[in-house]
Amino acid sequence: MKRYMMIFNLFLLPITMVAAEQTLWVEAPKKAVAGTLVSLSIHTQSENGLTVALRDMAGKDIISSNTFPAKNSRKEGMREEIALLGLPSTLQSGSFLLMLYSGKTLLWQQELSVEMGSFLKEDIPLNQKMSDLRSDDDPQKVEEAIAIHAIYNTFHRRPFDEKLSLHLPVTGGRFSAWYGDRRRYCYSDGTSALSIHSGVDIAAPVGTPISAGGEGTVVFTGPRIVTGNTVVIEYGPGVYGVFFHLDRIDIEEGSTVDADTHIGVVGMTGLATGPHLHWEIRVAGIPIDPLSLLATPLDMASSSPIQ
């Protein structure tokens, strides 16, 4: 299967706004694509962190994130703060507002034109065992979901190297599913359920080595009912790499990793119809296309063609 993705540039030409008394400069995109990363660079004289929010034109808040300090400011005499927002794959084409706050005070806003992404549809037949695993009402699944989403939404404010880039965690595999796929799980009893795929699946034989894909800290390792053996790595403030269905975990929680650090091997634990690695990226809790970040600075990401 070949899938061709249009190349979308986030049009990150500097958009500069000078606030009163020359104390605030903001660089932000004017266009973006659903399912990708939006980055803002804020130069300020304030020592405090800020909040960036995306709001629709009806006034409804869509997503928000805190800023973190850049390691090196590009403007003399000012501090640089970076904000990263993941745009949900479900966003429709249209106009939104990027808004910058200090506490409850609005400092800056700018219109953002979002284009809807293009995603595949996929039917996934499940046998009796997999049907039961996904559909059974198990309180442990709820507890596990709450716990892992609490990790996704954890933000550690710290200076961060926004030049961090990511690499595919598996070599020699093939893409068997894509970010944003609109899935229908077909249960063994003839019923079905809809879902949206939050990452990419890389099919490879059981035992294929998995690397961390980027620098960071391992914040979770362990088995989960649906995702099987799972590893979560914090790549940066509010940015997490998620690895599902491992056959074996070879890294410990709290470990510091780089892109090439071995973390485990491919398997098919949990809800899996064949051996593969599910890899996803969460930004401020929102899953975005991991392939849009490959070997690309996190603050200047754009989608790349996949063949």
Automatic annotation (TrEMBL):
Lineage top rank: taxon: Bacteria
Annotated InterPro entries: Cell_wall_metabolism_enzyme, Dup_hybrid_motif, M23ase_b-sheet_dom
Keyword set, alphabetical order: Signal
CDD domains to which the protein is assigned, alphabetical: M23_peptidase (cd12797)
An example molecular function term from Gene Ontology annotations: metalloendopeptidase activity
A Pfam short name: Peptidase_M23
Record-annotated M23ase beta-sheet core domain positions: 196-290
Annotated coiled-coil segments of the chain: none
Protein name listed in UniProt: Peptidase M23
Organism for this UniProt entry: Sediminispirochaeta smaragdinae (strain DSM 11293 / JCM 15392 / SEBR 4228)
